[in-house]
Write a structure and sequence with these properties.
There is one protein chain. The protein is of the alpha/beta class. The protein has two domains: about 190 residues, 3-Layer(aba) Sandwich (Rossmann fold), CATH 3.40.50; about 120 residues, Rossmann fold, CATH 3.40.50. The strands form three sheets. A seven-stranded mixed β-sheet has the order 3-2-4-5-7-6-12, with helices on both faces. Helix 3 runs parallel beside helix 4 and helix 9 packs across helix 10. One of its GO terms (molecular function) is oxidoreductase activity. InterPro entries: THDP-binding, Transketo_C/PFOR_II, Transketolase-like_Pyr-bd, Transketolase_C. Its cofactor is thiamine diphosphate. One of its GO terms (biological process) is organic acid metabolic process. This is Pyruvate dehydrogenase subunit beta.
């Protein structure tokens, strides 16, 4: 392992730049990805190295540039398309789901769509209801797309390499709070040692971030760090195991079930909405496979309300480490 410490944004750019050097069919497009270098630093330095032909700013029309990405992918290229905020996918739902996700199936496998849809998720910085959602579960619910959610710089690079090389569409969802931006400080944890060489992390392989014997906490993205903070706070009273899913599609159900069979208790933590989402899906899968081993379940998620603009109200609805602590304690004797 290299001792080179990178933020998550730099690790993502490291992977993208490597793939662009290796394969001239890889290119980037989206709003403010060229001159501005991505509002979340997701394309820093790419336009300078590769030029405007391969790092392209687009008009503010998600339908147009996601559709263009689908067409380019079907023609044999490997586009990386940035959807600035995941909240905006609604205006390009037809291109995203009816084309990007379905065209391989609809063509009987005659075309593939090796496209990476890179998008920012999450709240915590007062950007209100139209710029603060995660919506992991929405993409994971719709067949045809792989869904990736890194929590550290090391994972961000390995998962990005894997996404770009994959022959199916991949939705790569990064949490803004983890990117290492000067104006949005990250929690301890996402900045990690990152090798200079390329490497991949397989999809469908969860990472046990902390081993424990009493309660299993399953989460992803920003809330991996919230869960680890909670686990340290509880150490000595409750021995908490923390699992970082890393990908939702495919989902590593086996690692989760094995952990619950050991601990007997499950807490699922997610910044997406509570109803019809990731927390319910994980809980259901565990119940289907390990019901006899399961003593208790708690879910920590966003309540079913639009995310408020006012900081005190936003803080009230977004899950924090204390919410994880409370959920774990409710399952502990």
């Amino acid at each position: 392992m290299s001792d080179r410490q990178l933020t998550m944004s730099r690790a993502m750019v490291d992977a993208i730049a490597h793939e662009m050097r290796e394969d001239e069919e890889v290119f980037v497009m989206g709003e403010d990805v060229a001159d501005y270098e991505g509002i979340f630093d997701s394309t820093t330095g790419l336009r300078e190295e590769f030029g405007y032909d391969r790092v392209m700013d687009t008009p503010i029309s998600e339908t147009a540039f996601i559709g263009a990405g689908v067409g380019a992918a079907q023609a044999g290229m490997r586009p990386i398309v940035e959807l600035m905020f995941t909240d905006f996918f609604g205006v390009a739902m037809d291109q995203t789901y009816n084309n990007m996700a379905k065209n391989t199936y609809m063509s009987d496998g005659n075309v593939s769509v090796p496209m990476t849809l890179m998008t920012a998720v999450g709240g915590t910085y007062n950007d209100a209801a139209q710029h603060s959602q995660t919506l992991y579960g929405t993409f994971a619910h719709l067949p045809g797309m792989k869904v990736v959610v890194p929590s550290t710089a090391y994972d961000a690079k390995g998962l990005m390499h894997k996404a770009i090389r994959d022959d199916d569409p991949v939705v790569y969802m990064f949490h803004k709070r983890l990117m290492g931006l000067g104006w949005m400080p990250a929690p301890d944890g996402p900045k990690t040692a990152v090798p200079a060489d390329d490497y991949t992390i397989p999809f469908g392989s969860a990472d046990v971030k902390r081993e424990g014997a009493d309660v299993t906490v399953v989460t992803l993205g920003l809330h991996v760090h919230r869960a680890l903070e909670a686990a340290e706070e509880l150490a000595g009273d409750v021995d908490v195991e923390v699992i970082d899913l890393r990908t939702l599609v495919p989902l590593d159900t086996e690692t989760v079930v094995e952990s619950v069979r050991k601990t007997g208790n499950l807490v699922v933590v997610d910044e997406d909405y509570r109803s019809y989402g990731v927390t319910g899906e994980i809980t259901a899968r565990v119940a289907e496979s390990a019901l006899d081993d399961l003593s208790g379940v708690e879910r920590v998620a966003l309540p079913d309300v639009p995310i408020p603009y006012a900081r005190p109200l936003e803080n009230e609805v977004l899950p924090e480490a204390q919410d994880v602590i409370d959920a774990v304690r409710s399952l502990s004797p």
